[in-house]
Design a protein that fits this description.
The complex is a heterodimer of chains A (394) and B (305).
Chain A (H helix, E strand, L loop, with lengths): L1 H46 L2 H5 L11 E4 L3 H14 L9 E3 L1 H11 L4 E4 L4 H7 L6 E7 L2 E6 L3 H14 L6 H16 L5 E4 L5 H18 L2 H9 L5 E4 L2 H9 L5 E6 H10 L3 E5 L12 H4 L3 E6 L2 E6 L4 E5 L7 H12 L1 H9 L3 E10 L12 E3 L14
Parallel strand pairs in A: 1-2, 1-3, 6-7, 6-8, 13-14
Antiparallel strand pairs in A: 3-12, 4-12, 4-13, 5-8, 5-9, 10-11
Helix pairs in contact in A: 3-14, 4-5, 6-7, 7-8, 7-9, 8-9, 13-14
Chain B lengths: L5 H31 L2 H5 L2 H34 L5 H13 L2 H12 L5 H20 L3 H22 L7 H26 L2 H9 L4 H29 L3 H6 L3 E3 L2 E3 L2 H11 L2 H26 L6
Antiparallel strand pairs in B: 1-2
The chains are: A alpha/beta (394), B mainly alpha (305).
């Protein structure tokens, strides 16, 4: 009996302490909120243009965290740096750059992200639309698949030289076709070379690399599964990681000669950092980077099983999309970020990082949910029916 | 009737039990309750079964490493005072303090990079031996006699330096053995120091050799602690993720690359989602608990060894 009473007292004490602590935090929070409100509003009126001050949602003191596909790390870090200098009072949290699927999954469990950007058009609808976290995505840029080669290896150098040769030939000529066949023979059919790829479940470039390999098989060998089976049918032929950015580490450790999960958006900055690596661009019918080849890309799709689950992926162009979730901790900052992306500075940063901006941004989903300030830079996909096929079928 | 002095003690105890329930019991019960319904579904996935197999093999090998390396060390630490004992003691504690990712990086650096001094030296020796062999070919009989020996040596050396550590069972075992041996050593050291040294001394004065003394006097009193320590170190290996992320993200085994169980669950969490990861987490937890209980029952280990 006595111990029961004591236990009750202990629980009461714990409750009181807890409530008191919570109250203390709440007070501190309110103070911080009023302080930053004034600062942010001054900054807004002095620095930015009319489009921003036209909308006045309540600024928030929540840290502004961007979650984006690993390959956007380079472009988005530049944009965030510009943002930091424009809005010094804004708390910018450590951005979360991982595979798009991983980013979307992270948001589902944590609700920490204010802007989410994916390297395909399907991740945001399939994960965040279905769990009711948002109902639109803006396609803001397109990039293309490339192959990163390790120049410190014989196979890597061979491929790089063949690629340089191919640049001199007329596309689709016999010589050109033959050179590309030789390139893909070294990469896929030679059992002594190992390729780095990312995981299709966590990273779109995982299945996009599979699409690319299938399209290369189709284009140069008249058989979509010829190269695909040679690589993905042999566990010792490839090394798989969750994001393509991790693959460069494998390459510098000498474990892979080629990285198939790569875009210009990460290859340009990364081959610059990692000495002894270079990237080769691919023909438009293979590189998933040309909106006029959508129907050609759709000739193939890929099916993959991982952790006991099987999924089929449609081969779409590599389009970057972004959204602001309903419960974004800092929606105002998220809006500033996207506006900055559409500013001349933002567009220049995208281009420098190998991303061709899509202007106006094509909105898939509910156009009504797009913040009013972003409307001048975006249009619903219904106005651009030629792009409808790059988005998931509803 | 409660004495005034007893109240703080009871409050402290109540708070401690509350935290225990909230922090440890509640999450475990929740995970197992939610996951046990899907146990059959998890166990029907062959890639998950493979992951468990490879993890069990890896952890068992690591426990064996702990026994071989740890038993003499534990005896040494429990029985003798010597110079540098403090240093040895600290070295054994290092694995507990080093972040696991760093352990992975150290294993890669030491055994799978161009800084691998041991392999580099062995390769150099093999190279020198081959030169000697070539030089000897001028002397017919001598060459005929020595060549097989030299060749065997070269083959042995290149065989050793040919061992791959990244994404292999070797590397995985090296990483988890680094991390888990300490637990074994500490448990066995404590058990040995509880055995009265007088008995060993008496046996020695009666003429028994040190190894005979260890086998017939000490071992019967500490084998349960050894088994218990091996189990602890085994369990520690099963739960390892951080070092494996670097050394053996997937393990080449039976012609296939297989994720260790912890990496498998991580992949399921980031690739498919929380619900999927709960299914596999609960299954792994249940399997480990069953092995734990069965092992202890079989050995008749009670609490405290």
């Amino acid at each position: 009996m006595v111990s029961g009473k004591i236990l009750a007292v202990a629980v009461m004490v714990a409750l009181v302490v807890g409530v008191a602590a919570g109250y203390g935090v709440a007070i501190a929070h309110t103070h911080a909120a009023t302080y930053t409100t004034t600062v942010t509003s001054t900054t807004t009126t002095t620095v930015t243009s009319t489009s921003v001050s036209a909308t006045t949602p309540t600024p928030s003191t929540q840290p502004f965290v961007v979650g984006a596909a690993g390959t956007l790390k380079f472009a988005f870090t530049d944009v965030l740096n510009v943002m930091k200098s424009m809005y010094p009072s804004l708390t910018i949290g450590q951005p979360y750059f991982k595979g798009s699927g991983e980013v979307a999954g992270y948001e589902l469990t944590t609700n920490q992200l204010s802007v989410i950007a994916s390297a395909d058009t399907t991740t945001i609808p399939s994960v965040l639309f279905t769990h009711n976290y948002t109902d639109y995505e803006i396609a803001f840029g397109i990039t293309q698949m490339v192959i990163i080669v390790n120049l410190n290896t014989t196979a890597g150098q061979e491929v790089y030289n063949l690629w340089k040769e191919a640049q001199g030939y007329v596309p689709l000529s016999a010589q050109w076709n033959d050179t590309w066949r030789r390139i893909f023979t070294i990469i896929a059919l030679n059992s002594s070379t190992i390729v780095g790829v990312s995981n299709p479940f966590t990273d779109p470039s995982g299945y996009q690399a599979m699409c690319m390999v299938k399209l290369a098989g189709l284009t140069f060998f008249n058989n979509a599964s010829y190269l695909f089976d040679a690589i993905y049918g042999h566990p010792s032929k490839y090394l798989m990681r969750n994001t393509e950015v991790d693959l460069l580490t494998l390459m510098s450790a000498g474990q892979v000669q080629f990285i198939l999960s790569a875009y210009t958006s990460n290859a340009i900055p990364q081959t610059h950092i990692y000495k002894g690596t270079a990237y080769i661009t691919l023909p438009p019918m293979v590189n998933l980077g040309n909106l006029s080849y959508v129907n050609y890309y759709h000739q193939v799709n890929v099916t993959w099983t991982e952790v006991g689950e099987t999924r089929t992926f449609i081969c779409n162009p590599v389009v970057y999309t972004a959204t602001i979730p309903y419960n974004a901790p800092n929606p105002t900052a998220a809006l500033y970020f996207l506006l900055l992306l559409y500013s001349p500075t933002g567009q220049r940063i995208l281009e420098e990082n190998g991303i061709q901006p899509i202007v106006p941004g094509i909105v898939y989903g509910n156009y009504g949910s797009v913040p009013a300030a972003l409307r001048p830079f975006t249009a619903p996909v219904s106005q651009y029916p030629q792009y409808a096929s790059i988005f998931p079928v509803r | 009737m409660v004495y005034a002095g007893e109240l703080p003690l009871r409050v402290a105890l109540a708070v401690s039990i509350l935290i225990l329930l909230l922090l440890i019991v509640y999450p475990i019960v929740l995970l197992i309750t939610l996951g046990s319904a899907q146990l059959a579904s998890a166990l029907s996935v062959s890639s998950f079964i493979e992951a468990i197999e490879v993890t069990v093999i890896m952890s068992t090998l690591s426990a064996l490493v702990a026994i071989v390396m740890g038993t003499p060390l534990a005896y040494l630490l429990a029985r003798y005072e010597f110079r540098f004992k403090q240093i040895l003691d600290s070295i054994i504690d290092i694995p507990i303090m080093v972040p696991h990712i760093i352990v992975g990086i150290m294993i890669v650096l030491a055994f799978a990079s161009r800084y691998n001094i041991i392999f580099n030296t062995l390769n150099l020796i093999a190279h020198k031996l081959m030169l000697i062999d070539a030089a000897l070919s001028r002397y017919g009989l001598l060459h005929a006699l020595l060549s097989p020996v030299v060749n065997a040596l070269v083959n042995l050396l290149t065989g050793i330096t040919g061992i791959r550590f990244v994404n292999t069972l070797w590397g995985a075992v090296a990483a988890v053995a680094f991390l888990s041996s300490t637990y074994y050593i500490r448990v066995v050291e404590a058990a040995i120091s509880m055995v009265n040294p007088e008995m060993e001394i008496v046996a020695r004065t009666l003429g028994a050799s040190p190894s005979r003394v260890f086998i017939s006097i000490t071992l019967p009193k500490v084998w349960k602690a050894m088994a218990n320590g091996a189990l602890l170190s085994w369990a520690r290996s099963v739960s390892e993720a951080g070092a494996l992320f670097i050394v053996a993200y997937s393990i080449y085994f039976n012609g296939n690359y297989i994720y260790p169980a912890s990496v498998y669950i991580y992949e399921s969490y980031v690739g498919v989602g929380l619900a999927n990861a709960v299914k596999y987490s609960a299954a792994l937890l249940i399997i480990v608990l069953i092995i734990f209980v069965a092992y202890r029952v079989a050995l008749g280990i009670k609490r405290g060894g």
